[in-house]
Amino acid sequence: MRYRRLGSSGLQVSELSLGSWLTFGKLITDDTAEALMKLAYDNGVNLFDNAEIYSRGESERVMGRILKRMEWPRDTWIVSSKVFFGAGGKLPTQVGLHRKHVVEACHDALKRLQVEYLDLYFCHRPDPNTPIAETVWTMHQLIMQGKVMYWGTSEWSAKEISEAHTVATQHHLIGPVMEQPQYNLFHREKVEQEFAPLYHTVGLGTTIWSPLASGVLSGKHTLEGDASSRLRAAGLDWLRERELTEARLKKVGELKEVAASLDLSLPVLAIAWCLKNPHVSTVILGASKVAQLEENLKAVEVQDMLTEEVMVRVEQVLAGEKLSTW
Questions:
Q1: How many CB atoms lie within 10 A of CB 312?
Q2: Whole-model pTM above 0.70?
Q3: Would you please indicate which residues are annotated as catalytic (active-site) residues?
Q4: Mean pLDDT, to the nearest integer, of 19-26?
């Protein structure tokens, strides 16, 4: 495993991390979740990503029980949570980024994960109903209380992140260190274009999710689909319709040829491609099987095989997609 600084902070995160969205407490057994976490940890992964909304809090409970059972030294791993959507409640006091929910959600996440503090705490979406200043102050206070180490955002705009930093600077508060955006071969504009100035002005780190475009870049999907796949799970029609298109699948076929020429699987190529971007702090992997995670962990070493020539071949396949400005 290799490690990168989380933005301008001094925290070193593993290039690959393990996420629990759609899997923990929902699509896989607790035993499988434990096997995945153990495999990840044994291979140098130090970041385990979670959120209050994942499986309505059950994902954090599952992860918390595993972390307790493993008895890994607390100074060897990093755990995250996210706040905004709530853990099931729909009342105005149970969602959003106002002080009441952010503080209560933090306390609830600590209990579910069975930890004394969260290493990373993300604002899962921007909240138009709460002044950004209120959220910045609240996150700063949680850090001062020792309940959070670093805070960040997820799916915020560059303008919103900049506003949070302006507030933090004006009041000598701790601003957001990292953003968690979607980033993969088919979703590039935000990380490569919109956030470009922030890497230099505020030292933004990124913990990117969906490196396989919700499984489309696994190379296993067809328009007809596989009923057993995560993309076919109940309630994910919106995601399937957005990601699984005929044009995308044509490009997937061509990308598989590029991967095959390097004797690689398409998922490993796609994850390694994300790691080629120096502004990516860590790539969050999702997995439902041990063999799947074993395969995808190879991306750390494989990134060295993605020469300039290979990257050009990939860009040619992706003609019409946003080009990088690394």
A1: 9
A2: yes
A3: 54
A4: 97
